[in-house]
Design brief:
The structure holds 2 protein chains of 2 kinds. Chain A is an alpha/beta fold. Chain A is 38% helix and 22% strand. In chain A, β12 and β13 form a beta hairpin. The chains are: A alpha/beta, B mainly alpha. Chain B: GO terms for molecular function: amine transmembrane transporter activity; carnitine transmembrane transporter activity.
Chain lengths: 403, 287
C-alpha cells in the first residue's frame, strides 16, 4: 500500500548528542552502550541515536515514545531548530544539512510549519494577527495575508474570534489557532509536537477528528509527535516507536499491535484500547467450509466432526457465501438419505467486511449466537469471527489459528 | 597599624593611577567638547520647549496626557493630584526650577534609554556580553554617585551636562538589566515558533522578543527615570540648575522650610513621572 507512495522526508543516521565529550559519546554509542551508560561515563546526553526512517508524501507519521525518548529532539532536527550532531535530513531529496541560513529560512517559510504543545501563540497579538504571522514575515501584503489567515481559521473551524487575544480562548481553541497559523503558509509538511497533549480528553478527541478531517481535504505530510499510543493508533498511517533515543519499531498501527518488535513495545501496547484499532480481518479465523457443489451431508458431517464445530459455512465453487448448516440438520439429512444440502442451508448469516473495526461489532457479536462471516467485495467468504478470538485479541493475544 | 599588618608591602597607588587615567582622558578635548555640545543641545531643546509653553497650558497638557494614557481606566485621583501639585509648584515660584529639573531627568533618561536598551539586547543575545557587562553594571550602580561628579567636571566642565552624564551612568543599569531579563524570559516555545516560521533575527527581535519583553523593559525605564531624579540634588553641586539647587542652598543655610518646600516639589514631579511611565508599562489591547 505505502510502497507506491513517494518519499517526502528521508532521515539517515540522524544523531543528536547534548553536552561535552560528544566524540567520546559517539564512540561509546557505536560500541552498543545505552543512553544511561553513556551519560554516566561522559556526562553527555544522547538525544537521538542514529535514527533512520522515511516518511511518505501525504501520510500522517506518528513518532511515539515516552518523555525523554528523544521524539521532540528528533522533530526539531527535521526543521533544524536543533542542529543535528550527525546524519542528514532529506526533504524531496534536498539535504537540509547542506543549505545555508537563508535557504533554511526559505524552507521553513514555504515547506514546513510547526504546531507546538503549548500552542506558542504570541500573547500580544490578536487571533488573526497570530494566524498571519508566517505570512507577515514573508512580506506578504496585508490584504492577502488577512484573507489567507481567515481562510485557515475557517478550515480549523474558528471564525469569529479574529480580534480576541489568545488568553481569552480555551486551550482547544488556542491550538486551533496554532494549527491555523501553520496552515496559513500552505506548507507541504506539518510538524506537530505533542500538539494535543495539553488538551483535556474531550477536546483532544475533537482535535484528532478534526485533524483527520483536514487531512482528508488537504493531504499534507504530517509528522506528529505523541506519547499517547491510543492517539498514535487513531491518527497514524504509520507509527514509529522510540525509546531511550533509539528507534524501536516502525510500522502501521496493525503491524505494531500484531507484531510488536520487542517486550518494550508489547508492554506499551498492553493498555491500548485495541477494539478501535483491530479490524475484523485481524481477528477472523478459518471456518469449516463446505462447498455445496462438491460435498454432500456425509462429507459435511465428517468435516464438522474433525474440526469439532456444530456449524459449517456453505459456499459455492467460487467461494461465495451461501449460508450456514447446523450439525443437527446435517445428521437428519444423513438419516433421511437425502444427498442435497440445499434444503437445510440457513441464509440468514450476519456478515461484515475485513476492515470494520471490532469496536463496531462488539455489541452484535455478544448478541448473536452465530459467528459473523467476514466477506470481501465479491461476497467471497474470508473468515469468521468467533467470540473467543475477539476477546483473545482484545486481551493482546495474537490470533494464530488463521492460515 | 597599617605597617604592622601589611609589613613591607607598599601601598598600591590606586588613586594615582585613576588620576593619570582621567588626565589622559582630558587630552581628548575635542571629543568631550563634541559630547558636551550634543548633550547640551538635547537639554536646551527640552528647556526651550518648557520655557515656550505658558504654565497654564503646561498643566493642561500634563492632565490631557495623563487622561490619554489612562483612557481605558480613568484614575481621577491622579488627575486631581497632578492639578493641585503643579499649582503648588507654580504658587511657590518653583516653576522654572521644576522645568530645569524635568529637563535634566528627561535628557538623561532619554540617553540612558537609547544606550541602555541596545546594551540590554546585546546582553540577552550574547553570553560574552553578559559576562562582561554584569560587573560593569554593578560597578555603575553601587559606586557612590558623588564620585562620578569629579571626573565629570574635568571632562565636561560645570553646569547641566556633567550632571546629565553622571545621572546617565548612575541611572542606566536598570534599563539594561530589565531589557536583558525581559528578553531572556520570553518563553522558549515562542522563540521556537518565531524560528520555525522562518523569521530573521531582526524580525524575531521586533515582532516577538521586544513586544513580549515590553512590560519588563518599561519597568526598567521607569526605574532609570526615578534614579536620575534622585541625582538631581547631587548634580546641583556641580552647577546643574533646578529644584536640586534650592535644596542644596537650603542645606548650606540650614533653612529647613525652603529645603522641604523644594523637596516637596521634587516629590510631586517624581510621583507624576512615575505614574505616567507606569501606565505606559501596562499592555494595552485593541478592545
Amino acid at each position: 500500500m505505502s510502497t507506491q507512495k513517494s518519499t517526502k522526508v528521508e532521515v539517515n543516521n540522524l544523531t543528536k548528542i547534548f553536552g561535552k565529550h560528544i566524540n567520546k559519546a559517539k564512540e561509546l554509542s557505536r560500541q552498543g552502550k545505552d543512553k544511561a551508560e553513556i551519560l554516566k561515563e561522559t556526562g553527555a546526553t544522547v538525544g537521538v541515536d542514529r535514527a533512520d526512517f522515511k516518511i511518505y508524501d501525504g501520510e500522517i507519521f506518528v513518532i511515539m515514545g515516552l518523555s525523554g525518548s528523544g521524539k521532540s529532539t528528533l522533530v526539531r532536527m527535521i526543521n533544524r531548530l536543533i542542529e543535528p550532531t550527525e546524519g542528514e535530513v532529506l526533504i524531496d531529496g534536498e539535504n537540509l544539512m547542506k543549505i545555508d541560513k537563508k535557504q533554511l529560512r526559505e524552507v521553513r517559510r514555504k515547506k514546513m510549519s510547526m504546531v507546538f504543545q503549548n500552542f506558542g501563540l504570541l500573547p500580544n497579538r490578536t487571533i488573526l494577527e497570530n494566524a498571519e504571522y508566517g505570512l507577515e514575515i514573508q512580506g506578504v501584503d496585508k490584504a492577502t495575508r488577512e484573507a489567507k489567515a481567515k481562510e485557515a481559521l475557517d478550515t480549523v473551524g474558528i471564525s469569529g474570534y479574529n480580534d480576541e487575544y489568545p488568553d481569552q480562548l480555551s486551550g482547544g481553541m488556542q491550538q486551533r489557532v496554532g494549527l491555523a497559523r501553520a496552515l496559513a503558509n500552505d506548507p507541504e509538511i506539518l510538524l506537530m509536537d505533542e500538539a494535543f497533549s495539553a488538551l483535556d480528553p474531550l477536546n483532544r478527541t475533537d482535535m484528532q477528528d478534526q485533524l483527520l478531517d483536514i487531512q482528508e481535504r488537504l493531504h499534507k505530510t504530517i509528522i506528529f509527535i505523541s506519547h499517547d499510543l491510543n492517539e498514535a493508533l487513531k491518527i497514524g498511517d504509520r507509527i514509529m516507536i522510540m525509546k531511550d533515543a533509539k528507534v524501536i519499531q516502525t510500522g502501521t498501527p496493525e503491524d505494531i499491535l500484531t507484531h510488536p518488535a520487542n517486550e518494550y513495545v508489547e508492554e506499551f501496547i498492553e493498555n491500548v484500547d485495541r477494539s478501535k484499532v483491530l479490524t475484523a480481518g485481524n481477528v477472523m479465523i478459518r471456518p469449516t467450509i463446505v462447498n455445496i457443489e462438491k460435498a454432500g451431508p456425509r462429507l459435511a458431517l465428517k468435516m464438522m466432526k474433525d474440526t469439532e464445530v456444530s456449524t459449517a459455512y456453505v459456499v459455492d465453487s467460487s467461494r461465495n457465501l451461501l449460508g450456514i448448516v447446523d450439525a443437527n440438520d446435517v445428521i437428519r439429512l444423513v438419516r433421511e438419505k437425502n444427498g442435497d444440502l440445499t434444503s437445510i442451508v440457513q441464509t440468514k448469516v450476519p456478515t461484515t467486511s475485513e476492515d470494520t473495526p471490532i469496536s463496531d461489532l462488539l455489541d452484535d457479536i455478544s448478541q448473536t449466537g452465530i459467528p459473523f462471516a467476514v466477506i470481501n467485495d465479491k461476497k467471497q467468504l474470508r473468515g469468521i469471527i468467533v467470540r473467543g478470538a475477539v476477546l483473545g485479541a482484545l486481551a493482546g493475544n495474537e490470533v494464530s489459528d488463521f492460515e | 597599624m597599617n605597617s604592622i599588618l601589611l609589613g613591607s608591602i607598599p601601598q598600591i597607588p590606586l588613586a594615582h593611577w585613576i588620576d593619570n587615567f582621567v588626565n589622559w582622558l582630558v587630552q581628548f578635548t575635542g571629543f568631550f567638547n563634541g559630547v558636551t555640545n550634543f548633550i547640551g543641545s538635547i537639554n536646551n531643546a527640552f528647556q526651550w520647549f518648557f520655557d515656550l509653553v505658558p504654565i497654564w497650558l503646561f498643566i493642561v497638557l500634563v492632565l490631557a496626557l495623563t487622561y490619554y494614557i489612562n483612557r481605558d481606566q480613568q484614575n481621577w485621583g491622579l488627575l486631581i493630584f497632578e492639578f493641585l501639585g503643579l499649582l503648588m509648584i507654580w504658587n511657590l515660584d518653583f516653576w522654572r526650577d521644576m522645568t530645569q529639573t524635568l529637563t535634566l531627568v528627561l535628557t538623561s533618561s532619554l540617553i540612558a534609554l537609547v544606550i541602555g536598551i541596545p546594551l540590554g539586547i546585546l546582553m540577552a543575545k550574547s553570553h560574552t556580553a553578559e559576562i562582561i557587562l554584569k560587573p560593569v553594571l554593578d560597578f555603575m550602580q553601587t559606586m557612590p554617585a558623588f564620585v562620578y561628579l569629579i571626573p565629570a567636571v574635568a571632562l565636561f566642565g560645570i553646569g547641566m551636562v556633567p550632571g546629565i552624564v553622571a545621572s546617565v551612568i548612575f541611572a542606566m543599569p536598570p534599563t539594561v538589566r530589565m531589557t536583558n531579563m525581559g528578553i531572556r524570559e520570553v518563553p522558549d516555545e515562542l522563540i521556537e515558533a518565531a524560528d520555525s516560521f522562518g523569521s530573521t533575527e531582526w524580525q524575531k527581535l521586533f515582532k516577538v522578543e521586544l513586544p513580549i519583553a515590553k512590560t519588563s523593559l518599561m519597568a526598567g525605564v521607569n526605574q532609570s527615570m526615578m534614579l536620575s531624579l534622585s541625582m538631581v540634588v547631587i548634580a546641583s553641586m556641580i552647577g546643574a540648575m533646578g529644584l536640586g539647587t534650592k535644596v542644596y542652598f537650603a542645606v548650606g543655610r540650614n533653612d529647613a522650610g525652603n529645603g522641604f518646600a523644594a523637596g516637596l516639589a521634587i516629590v510631586v514631579l517624581a510621583i507624576i513621572l512615575d505614574r505616567l511611565t507606569q501606565s505606559l508599562t501596562r499592555t494595552r489591547r485593541k478592545h
